[in-house]
Amino acid sequence: MATWSTMMLQDANSPLMEQLSFFHDHSMMILTMITIMVSYLLATTMFNKMINRYLLEGQTIELIWTMLPAVMLVFIALPSLRLLYLMDEVNNPMLTIKSIGHQWYWSYEYSDFQNIEFDSYMKPMSELEQNEFRLLDVDNRIMLPMNTQIRILVTATDVLHSWAMPSLGIKVDATPGRINQSSFMMMRPGLMYGQCSEICGANHSFMPIVIESIPMEFFIKWLNSN
């Protein structure tokens, strides 16, 4: 069961990731139907003894096996294009944070507030608590309010990085000299884990990302304490 669960997507915590999960299931169903149909036709072709050496063409069947894949591609392409548009859209954010990739850690700035910025390093094994994950937990988590439209600006200071949070359906390249942006909204409280998904050097695998989603009143208290 544990092996099967590792093949699945992470539990969605944003409307966009929910739509991506639905699109994944939709595409896999179409691919399964294609595989079954092609396997059946291949098996019947190999094992039946009905042949006709004088059959030179069959325009009807040729039209069918040309049009059918085209129709299936349309059923995949339309929801895919819709999702691409939604992923690129930034809808009136209530909060903006900036993520800066370094070799090899992340730093964050809360652009809407003064003097709220910090570095986020991976926790060494000697400092891990009993309920924390090795190679995934950090010393300073990103605290963000749930049910709030959030914009994230991503850049880097040295080499290419990539800010990825699978449970939110976000992956943004961090490029030196360029600021990329994306947006998300978290639907429930909890911890979400991500990592740098660009091979950025020797310690590429030691750049985890942790977001703690909290209610707005707790977020305001956290702001006041910083």
TrEMBL record:
Alphabetic keyword roster: Copper, Electron transport, Magnesium, Membrane, Metal-binding, Mitochondrion, Mitochondrion inner membrane, Respiratory chain, Translocase, Transmembrane, Transmembrane helix, Transport
InterPro entries: CcO_II, CcO_II-like_C, CcO_II_C, Copper_CuA, Cupredoxin, Cyt_c_oxidase_su2, Cyt_c_oxidase_su2_TM_dom, Cyt_c_oxidase_su2_TM_sf
Cofactor: Cu cation
Membrane topology: Multi-pass membrane protein
GO cellular component, one term: mitochondrial inner membrane
Subcellular location: Mitochondrion inner membrane
One of the protein's GO biological processes: ATP synthesis coupled electron transport
Molecular function in Gene Ontology: copper ion binding; cytochrome-c oxidase activity; oxidoreductase activity
Record-annotated Cytochrome oxidase subunit II transmembrane region profile domain positions: 1-91
Free-text cofactor note: Binds a copper A center.
Residue ranges annotated for the Cytochrome oxidase subunit II copper A binding domain, each copy included: 92-225
Main subcellular location: mitochondrion
Subunit structure as annotated in this protein's UniProt entry: Component of the cytochrome c oxidase (complex IV, CIV), a multisubunit enzyme composed of a catalytic core of 3 subunits and several supernumerary subunits. The complex exists as a monomer or a dimer and forms supercomplexes (SCs) in the inner mitochondrial membrane with ubiquinol-cytochrome c oxidoreductase (cytochrome b-c1 complex, complex III, CIII).
Family: Belongs to the cytochrome c oxidase subunit 2 family.
Function: Component of the cytochrome c oxidase, the last enzyme in the mitochondrial electron transport chain which drives oxidative phosphorylation. The respiratory chain contains 3 multisubunit complexes succinate dehydrogenase (complex II, CII), ubiquinol-cytochrome c oxidoreductase (cytochrome b-c1 complex, complex III, CIII) and cytochrome c oxidase (complex IV, CIV), that cooperate to transfer electrons derived from NADH and succinate to molecular oxygen, creating an electrochemical gradient over the inner membrane that drives transmembrane transport and the ATP synthase.
Name the record gives this protein: Cytochrome c oxidase subunit 2
Originating organism: Enithares tibialis
Gene: CO2
